[in-house]
Amino acid sequence: METTLTDLSTENCPIGRTLDVIGTTWTLRVLREAFFGVRRFVDFRERLGVSSALLTERFGLLVEHGILVRTAYEEPGQRTRYEYRLTEKGRELYPVMTALREWGERHVLDDDGPPVLVRHRECGAAVGVALVCEHGHTVGVRDVEATPGPGARLRAEQPESRS
Amino acid sequence: METTLTDLSTENCPIGRTLDVIGTTWTLRVLREAFFGVRRFVDFRERLGVSSALLTERFGLLVEHGILVRTAYEEPGQRTRYEYRLTEKGRELYPVMTALREWGERHVLDDDGPPVLVRHRECGAAVGVALVCEHGHTVGVRDVEATPGPGARLRAEQPESRS
DNA sequence: CAGTATCCCAAGCGATACTG
DNA sequence: CAGTATCGCTTGGGATACTG
Fold it and tell me: How open is the CA angle B143-B144-B145, to the nearest 5 degrees?
């Protein structure tokens, strides 16, 4: 009998793994602010309305995972400040943000339209994500085929559930 | 003085709104299973390893938001069964899933490679998401410009934080 | 099977106070 | 400013038992 997708373990699923890292309640909102250009601790805290303790903990995790970096900087004549910036690994989450934004703009937006317009700097057209294949074709959800890959693992046998 | 992005309220942010709907701990995993083709209550429960109570609650929310539909069906000679399927609105979350998957495959994958291969049915090439503008250009994160849109709202004044 | 109901523990998180 | 520490509430969610 052929192995189908639903025979596979979800344990090493890249979606689940990603959610383990960024899928907790405030983490993606913190990253959203980072993509907005927010850098300083207080600014994150005030914009998100969260406690210092929570923010400290989230920053710790994100730095640990290499998604943000904490750097000190001095403005002349000022105290030392710290800032949190996206790393390249963090910046690669932009498609996730964009996909979330597009869905939200389509389905859960107020009547007055999007609060932020995101456009291609060179031509001014709205930016979003598209499903594409490596040959450059635009792909619909229905045109996609999913099959077990090299990392596929069978999940532990259920004791043969008979209804 | 010009209004900048960081002056805006985050209250009506489409990313935040989307996360309010699907950003809770198990919800995206439930949807992942739905995209895998899982339909029946027990199958979701066994694959995710969650309790009935949790699953019931999540299904309730997702149906309420029009992301899943619950339908009864009868197999001849069998009891009535129920299944949960993605609606069109739910299927539109596929780019979100794909973006999460791609990031995970790049950054948090085991050495043995992806458990699932996702390919374009017609040409066999791997499928992912790409940032594009409406004029069809492929766009880099750095080529994007974000400005306040029609739904922009100023956030409540902070009492002028002076460091 | 597809849930509902109850009980209870643990994690998430805000509030507050304090520190370098 | 950029945190750390503590407290205590509230929610999330597992375990178990029961129902149509």
Answer: 125
Q: Is the pLDDT of residue B112 over 90?
A: yes
Q: How many CB atoms lie within 10 A of CB B8?
A: 21
Tell me if B145 sits within 8 A of A119, measured CB to CB: yes
Q: Decide if pLDDT at B160 tops 60.
A: no
Q: Are B6 and A36 in contact (CB under 8 A)?
A: yes
| Interval A64-80 mean pLDDT | 87
Backbone torsion region of residue A49, taken as left when φ is above 0, otherwise alpha when ψ lies between -120 and 50, otherwise beta = left
**Interval A15-32 mean pLDDT:** 97
CB contact under 8 A, B99 and A101: no
Size of interface A-B (CB pairs under 8 A): 310
**47-86 on A, CB < 7 Å from strand C:** 49-54
Question: Residue B125 CB: number of other CB atoms within 10 A?
Answer: 15
